[in-house]
Amino acid sequence: MSDTPPDRLSVDPASQFFNESLLERGIGIRFNGIEKHNVEEYSVTEGWVKVSVGKTVDRHGKPLTMKLKGKVEAYFRDTDAA
Predict the structure, then answer these.
(1) Separation of alpha carbons 11 and 29, rounded Å
(2) Which residues, including other chains, have CB under 8 Å from residue 77's CB and lie 6 or more apart?
(3) What are the DSSP calls for 35-58, one per residue?
(4) Please, are residues 1 and 25 in contact by the beta-carbon 8 Å criterion?
(5) What DSSP state is assigned to residue 18?
(6) pLDDT tens-digit profile of 7-47?
């Protein structure tokens, strides 16, 4: 496998950016230098993450998200040297 994570990835199986094998491998996200654990989707080149807002869900049972813009760094957790 490649040591470079994809530019865009989502945890929602209905999304076209969902990739189960990459999610099982473990993706870590640093947003503006801070480790985030509640990221639902991200885009490195566009510089945004969608984070879940608490435990609130919409009428379809999906978590409500908020889009934040800034510097996004994605990495694989199994090869994280830092």
Answers:
(1) 13
(2) 25, 26, 27, 28
(3) EES-EEEEETTTTEEEEEEEEEE-
(4) yes
(5) B
(6) 999 999 999 999 999 999 999 999 999 999 999 999 999 99
